[in-house]
């Protein structure tokens, strides 16, 4: 009988830990969302993973960031080309280091 109470005590302690950490609230919210979902997903476990990870970015945010990265890479390439062009044009007007040493 004492082992039953010890297990019960450990279970209650663990439940309090989960409640204090907010795990029970998070699980409840996700399960309620799944219950209220008009069309149940084929993979309920995947639904739980996606909705439990509330701190992660939305897929729309990720897509927008990917577009930004592509645009910024193109801008960097354009500015790098422009920089190289301006450097070559500047060399035409700067005296070469050989001429400076002769003077």
Automatic annotation (TrEMBL):
Residues 83-103 are annotated as: Disordered. Keywords: Nucleus. It is found in: Nucleus. Residues 85-94 have a biased composition (Basic and acidic residues). PANTHER family: ASSOCIATE OF C-MYC AMY-1, C-MYC-BINDING PROTEIN. Belongs to the AMY1 family. This is c-Myc-binding protein. It comes from Clavelina lepadiformis.
């Amino acid at each position: 009988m004492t082992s039953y109470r010890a297990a019960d005590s450990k279970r209650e302690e663990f439940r309090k830990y989960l409640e204090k950490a907010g795990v029970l609230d998070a699980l409840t919210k996700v399960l309620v969302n799944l219950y209220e979902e008009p069309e149940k997903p084929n993979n309920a476990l995947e639904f739980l993973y996606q909705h439990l990870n509330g701190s992660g970015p939305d897929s729309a945010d990720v897509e927008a960031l990917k577009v930004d990265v592509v645009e910024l890479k193109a801008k960097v390439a354009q500015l790098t080309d422009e920089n190289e062009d301006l450097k070559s044009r500047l060399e035409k007007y700067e005296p070469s280091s050989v001429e400076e040493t002769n003077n």
